[in-house]
Design goal:
FAD/NAD(P)-binding domain, globular, D-Amino Acid Oxidase, Chain A, domain 2, 424 residues, FAD_aromatic-hydroxylase, binds flavin-adenine dinucleotide, alpha/beta, 7-stranded mixed β-sheet, FAD/NAD(P)-binding domain-containing protein, FAD/NAD-bd_sf, 6-stranded mixed β-sheet, FAD-bd, flavoprotein, 18 strands
Amino acid sequence: MPLNILIVGAGIAGPAFASLLQRSSVTSAHHVTIIERSPVLRASGQQIDFKAQCIPILEKMNLLKAMREKTVAETGLEVVDGNDKVVAKFGINPADRNGFALTSEYEIMRGDMVRVFYEDSLAQRAKVEHEEKQSAKGSLTYEFNKSIEALHHSANSAEVTFSDGQKKEYDLVIGADGASSRTRRLAFGRDIGNAAFKSLGIHTCYFDMPRIPSEGGMARIRFVPASFFVTRTSGRPVTGALVFTKKDAEVLRASYGKPIEEQKKTWMGIMEINDWQKERFVEGLKNSVDFYAHEQGQVKIDELYKGRVALLGDSGYCPAPFTGLGTTCSLIGCYILAGELARHGDDVDTALKNYQKLVKPPIEELQHLPYLPFPSSRVGMWVVTNIAKWIYKLGIDKMLPAKDTEGGTKWALPEYPELKWHKE
Ligand SMILES: Cc1cc2nc3c(=O)[nH]c(=O)nc-3n(C[C@H](O)[C@H](O)[C@H](O)COP(=O)(O)OP(=O)(O)OC[C@H]3O[C@@H](n4cnc5c(N)ncnc54)[C@H](O)[C@@H]3O)c2cc1C
């Protein structure tokens, strides 16, 4: 029996899942609505990468080529000192190896990835309707400027109240609304929903600033006490600035609910500790129109669903943007949930039970955190910079062994013959 499905959030996971639902005759018969809080597709953000099982999934979806065409022209990472002198240089990390660069083999601007999944979901829907002509069942609808306000569980459904006051009953609600998911809080209760976000005590801000002629294709990083400052041109006419800090964590946390200009003022305090291109960062922050800041954290929650509400992507298992694995975790989740729904027809309970069982092992592995270099003193910062220098000088980065399996997870992707993969 076709289901009424609501997906909350049109970031990466929402549209990717909607696209995957169109790949089987069972799930393409469902009526799918995606709501997005933002008035338009929220295609902002800096570079994100995809690794591990994300690559075979994109290949199956026939999207690897489209993603590859959008990868950014970043050639590695330079570690600099306060005088702009390069002390170490690392090339791109291949997908099957660990490395010291921020750049992985598949690196793409977040907005490009959001658009690829969004457009593909609509293209797949159009294909279903074209193939099935008059008999096409199901639907896929995006509604922007709409959010979820309340949620009530009943035996086999969930009643949702929207920001416009409208109420509607769904057979399945998917929370794909990011690490600070409201759906999670509404479904599991405020305490469990909030406690699922495990702060790393690190705050990050991102903004674009004018590019300078001396900047090439390498990202650059400068370690200062309890913070580091990064520039990435990503092959664009502007430069992305990224600041990571453990300083003033409480003050920064308190600033997030405030208007952007006030948040920027709080971040000006962090700019003070920078001894590299300080004026450029200060001016860039002041004049930026795309400033975005958040607290780095992981989402860990025992159950990924309650009744007919399930968490997908960052809302259920954000690995922290730091790891560069947010997209990979999300896409693994989308693939398994779509596969299980296709396999079990309208037995949603079994599909959700299997989704949770299958997605937990790879996610736990991918949530393993790397060492985070945040020396709090000048001496510590000098040590980190010099370790990078000697790793580079002695070529230790080139001696790293290949990972056991691509991307470092030993887990094998389940196969779903129920899903159709069209080759162009
Ligand atoms: C603006 C933005 C910039 C980002 N920049 C980076 C970056 O530079 N580097 C990086 O590694 N990761 C970044 N991320 C996170 C990254 O996109 C995710 O880690 C990952 O791709 C998983 O995607 P997701 O769909 O689960 O979550 P997200 O990509 O966060 O998408 C969640 C979506 O849900 C929407 N939403 C939230 N609440 C509601 C609500 N109540 N009702 C309806 N819609 C709602 C949001 O507007 C967003 O479109 C960013 C996320 C956002 C939203």
